[in-house]
Write a structure and sequence with these properties.
The complex is a heterodimer of chains A (595) and B (129).
Chain A lengths: L1 H19 L4 H32 L3 E6 L4 E4 L1 H7 L3 H4 L4 H4 L3 H17 L8 E7 L5 E13 L2 E10 L1 H28 L6 H16 L3 E7 L5 E9 L13 E3 L4 H8 L4 E3 L6 H4 L2 H8 L1 E11 L2 E11 L7 H61 L1 H16 L6 H32 L8 E3 L1 H14 L6 E7 L5 E3 L1 H17 L6 E8 L3 E7 L32 H11 L3 E7 L3 E9 L2
Parallel strand pairs in A: 13-15
Antiparallel strand pairs in A: 1-2, 1-5, 3-4, 4-5, 6-7, 6-11, 7-8, 9-10, 10-11, 12-14, 15-16, 16-18, 17-18
Helix pairs in contact in A: 1-2, 7-8, 7-12, 8-12, 13-14, 14-17, 15-16, 16-17
Chain B lengths: L2 E5 L3 H13 L3 E5 L2 H10 L4 E4 L8 H10 L8 E5 L4 H9 L4 E4 L4 H11 L11
Parallel strand pairs in B: 1-2, 1-3, 3-4, 4-5
The chains are: A alpha+beta (595), B alpha/beta (129).
């Protein structure tokens, strides 16, 4: 503007001068004088107007000569930089308002222009910073142009303080960044795997706390009738922990009716100053003051047509005012929590269904097992009990029908047979009862200190005159099995059954090897026979109750012996293992660890 | 005097049945399993075989089949005395040539009736034991 005015004036003067040449000398002098006066007056008027315009300008107008000294300094420049016109005129501009970092460039720029009359910064708007008298640096926008004059060049500039504009831009940029951040966080959270509800909630609380810069995030769930609010998770950003706070577990509607009524009606509690807001005033003494909470943003979680929980953003420190964007963000978070809750509910339902299905299936299998067990028991009982019952009935009938023809000795034999049969039946009954006790968990385990070696010797004596009288039983003790904590009753069951089996399932006259080996870890009993062996197809069910191998169906037995052995070994915390070859023999190994 | 072969793997029952039949005047040969029984049959065929069904090694079914397959022994009456109470076992044995099927425990009079019905001549003298 300044530039164009000057040009206008110059061209007017030139035109006038040219026109004067053609006028007569007298008139010329007369009117020249008058014209000059008029012209001077107009120039003065215009210059005055120009000065006024410059003075009144909202922009600082500064002119310097080519040496960098200030020649013009308007009112706005005084106001903007804090230097008065009187102080400024004649000062080096760079000493007053150009920040140190730009000074050298400023000097070089002027020199280069004077040398080349070319410069890129001239005649355009630039954004730079300038110094106030106080030393404060602030952003400015300026345009500079050079004017040729008698002394060479002067440079004039319009300068505008753009602090506010910059500030507004910064705020707008921050807002955009924030919106972007909110979106990114929500996007990430929405894509999170929601298999574990606690993980999901922790993730959500942590992210929200970071994004909004909130010290405490709390997730609380309402009881079904909205009478209490139970804290489920607290996340503290300072310590990055979720330790529960025992002193404020449940919140009752009776104590905090205002707060409850807002949240339950699906409205948020957005409170900048907790002390003065009615919705939070009731929480101040018991909750907010002890925890140092000053501002609160609590949003309800809505699921299946009702408020089920609340997400609390609890700000600690100087109170803050929640922005609309933050409240919107909190609502989005509450929706995410609702989704996580829904996923958790769905998974729980699915899990319950799976569980129920598994239970039914298990019950069915158990039922089948019981049915099978029952039929095995029935077939065992009907078969195995018949032999001793026959002995009893036949003996009794012989004694009754042929009494007078039988010698006393024969009679005694018959009575002996009845007793033996009864004993054999009692034994079978005891086996069944033993398994029954074990199946119902009533089998007692009473370990006492026993001398294993003499225990075995004693047992062998009994067997050698009883079931094993037709076999050779070789016993060997390795190591010192002096004393161990073992239940003698159960050990007897283990050894008696294994030895009886060895005897029962191997030919008369064959040898049964019985070894008792003690080492530092425990005792290993080994019982090896040269009997029928265990067929492959029977090995899976070898220790099942009433199960009998296919190759021994013609040999008497209840099918309980090995089941009993297994249960007794289990009670000792031991292991049972075997190797077997059909037609060659079987070797059982029982390891009982020292208690 | 009729000779009866008793095949029974349980010692007590073997003794008891033998004793009963001897008290009734029969000559009794006892075998503890099917293999021994078949040897007996071959060497000196009895007038009747009283046989257990379930025995180790050679069982009652095998005894039945071996007897029926051999024309020399097919006519010897065979009675099963068994712990099996299964109707299917009974049917199978009777269909394949057995003359009787009694389930343990049995009443001695029923057994004696069955035996005497299957033997051509009644016994005359009865010994004391």
């Amino acid at each position: 503007m300044w530039h164009s005015l000057m040009e206008l004036l110059a061209s007017a003067v030139k035109r006038r001068t040219v026109s004067n040449i053609t006028v007569s000398r007298e008139i010329q002098e007369e009117s020249q004088h008058q014209l000059n006066r008029q012209l001077e007056q107009r120039i003065a008027e215009r210059t005055e107007r120009l000065h006024m315009m410059i003075e009144a300008s909202k922009e600082a107008v500064v002119t310097i000569n080519q040496n960098g000294y200030v020649e013009e300094w308007n009112a706005m420049a005084e106001h903007m930089f804090g230097w008065s016109r009187r102080e400024a005129i004649g000062q080096r501009l760079s000493d007053m308002i150009i920040p140190h970092k730009y000074r050298e460039a400023h000097e070089i720029g002027i020199k280069r222009f004077l040398a080349t009359e070319q410069c890129t910064v001239l005649n355009q708007t630039l954004e730079l910073s300038a110094l106030k008298r106080s030393g404060e640096e602030f952003p400015i926008e300026l345009s500079v142009w050079p004017v040729r004059c008698a002394e060479g060049y002067i440079f004039s500039a319009f300068l505008r303080d753009i602090t506010e504009r910059k500030q507004a831009l910064r705020v707008a940029k921050e807002q955009v960044e924030r919106t972007l951040l909110f979106r990114t966080v929500l996007y990430d959270l929405s894509r999170m795997v929601k298999t574990d509800f606690n993980d999901s909630i922790l993730n959500i609380l942590k992210s929200t706390s970071e994004t909004l810069g909130v010290a405490r995030m709390v997730f609380s769930r309402f009881s079904h009738c909205h009478s209490t609010l139970q804290t489920e998770m607290i996340y503290r950003s300072a310590s990055d922990d979720t330790a529960p706070e025992s002193e404020c577990g449940d919140f009752s509607v009776d104590l905090y009716p205002q707060y409850f009524s807002v949240i339950i009606s699906n409205r948020p509690v957005v409170v900048d100053d907790v002390q003065s807001d009615p919705a939070t005033a009731e929480l101040v003494d018991n909750y907010l003051i002890p925890l140092g909470i000053t501002s609160m943003l609590d949003v309800p979680v809505w699921l299946d047509g009702r408020v089920v929980a609340v997400i609390c953003h609890e700000h600690v420190g100087p109170s803050r005012s929640w922005t609309t964007e933050e409240v919107d963000f909190a609502f989005c978070i509450s929706n995410l929590v609702a989704l996580a809750l829904e996923a958790a509910n769905r998974m729980q339902t699915e899990e319950e269904l799976r569980q129920a299905e598994a239970d039914v299936r298990k019950a069915l299998v158990r039922e089948q097992e019981l049915n099978e067990l029952k039929s095995r028991f029935v077939s065992m009982a009907s078969h195995e009990f018949r032999t001793p019952l026959t002995a009893i009935l036949s003996s009794a009938e012989l004694l009754e029908a042929y009494s007078e023809r039988l010698s006393l000795e024969k009679k005694a034999d018959l009575i002996g047979m009845i007793k033996t049969a009864v004993k054999s039946m009692t034994h079978m009954l005891e086996e069944v009862l033993f398994i029954g006790k074990s199946d119902t968990g009533h089998l007692q385990f009473n370990p006492t200190s026993i001398e294993v070696d003499s225990f075995c010797e004693h047992l062998l004596k009994e067997i050698r005159v009883g079931v094993g009288k037709d076999h050779i039983i070789e016993y060997r003790a390795i190591g010192h099995c002096i004393s161990s904590m073992i239940d003698p009753h159960l050990l007897r069951q283990i050894l008696l059954n294994l030895l009886s089996n060895g005897i029962k399932f191997s030919p008369k006259g064959s040898t049964i090897n019985f070894t008792c080996n003690c080492d530092s870890g425990g005792i290993v009993f080994e019982i090896a026979d040269q009997g029928v062996g265990i067929p492959m197809e029977d090995r899976a069910n070898l220790f099942s109750t009433f199960h009998r191998a296919g190759n021994v169906s013609n040999i008497q037995g209840t099918g309980l012996g090995l089941a009993i052995v297994k249960k007794c070994v289990d009670l000792h915390g031991g292991e049972i293992d075997y190797t077997s070859e059909v037609g060659k023999g079987t070797r059982f190994l029982v390891r009982i660890p020292f208690l | 005097m009729a000779k009866i072969l008793v095949v029974e793997n349980d010692l007590a029952l073997r003794i008891l049945v033998t004793q009963l039949l001897e008290l009734e005047g029969y000559t009794v040969v006892a075998a503890e399993n099917g293999a021994v029984a078949l040897e007996f049959v071959e060497n000196e065929p009895p007038d009747l075989v009283l046989c257990d069904l379930l025995m180790p090694e050679v069982d009652g079914y095998q005894v039945l089949h071996r007897l029926m397959q051999n024309p020399l022994t097919a006519s010897i009456p065979l009675i099963f005395l068994t712990a099996s109470a299964l109707p299917s076992d009974r049917e199978y044995c009777l269909e394949n040539g057995a003359k009787g099927f009694m389930t343990k425990p049995f009443h001695h009079l029923e057994l004696l009736d069955l035996i005497s019905n299957l033997l051509p001549e009644p016994n005359v003298s009865v010994p004391n034991l």
